[in-house]
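Hey,
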Amino acid sequence: MPAPRTVLLTGAAGGMGTLMRGLLPAYGYELRLFDATPIEGEPDAITADLADKEALREAVRGVDAVIHLAGISLEASFEKILRSNIEGTYNLYEAAREEGVGRIVFASSNHAVGFTPVPAEGAPVVPVGTPHRPDTFYGLSKAFGEDLAQLYWDLHGVETVSVRIGSCFMEPSSVRMLSVWLSPGDGARLLHAALTAENVGHTVVYGSSANTRLWWDLTSARAIGYEPQDDSEQYAEKLIADQGELDPANPDHANLGGHFCTNPPLWPY
């Protein structure tokens, strides 16, 4: 697929959105920025909520593709998740369908399968086809988004790459992150691959770097052209010295979702 020139980036003021704003233009993209929060230094950014259907329709008009990062990124009440992550994602897909945008990259999450057990040492990594096992309302919204993407491909021909993002930060801050870390550079490489791969239909991929302690299968990500270049192992010695190794007997360490499965980080209701 020819590289799209103009890409709508929703959630552009968020953590990953901020990182991608700095990295994706090097791949030749002209980014149209969208967020509910004003973005300092970006006077042309669209400041609007995902509930604003008219603003979304205008935001997608004329773009070649969408990277959808917007929404609540931790656990919250069901009502808040419903409005932002479920209804908001539906509104985005409807706007894209109405304006004839053919490719969306959807920021899913490992929390869509959070109750999947962590693979034991030496066991096969978790396949991308593992059933949804969301660990929170947040994870449930990401499972919904993946299914919505499948529906819009089957019904309307809108292609999506759903990226089950691990933890995209400059460096991992916990021992768990050694297995799920997505470096910013690899994040940009993965999004570029998701935007340019041919005939993706609806493809689900895991979003992480080529970590030595990787928990999940990157085969489908590599199949769309993703070539990760980073590995969290360079941070392992210090993190393990500070925090200790993961303990399979600890409920917080037993499943892919980590402490989301036992003590989800709730936003104030």
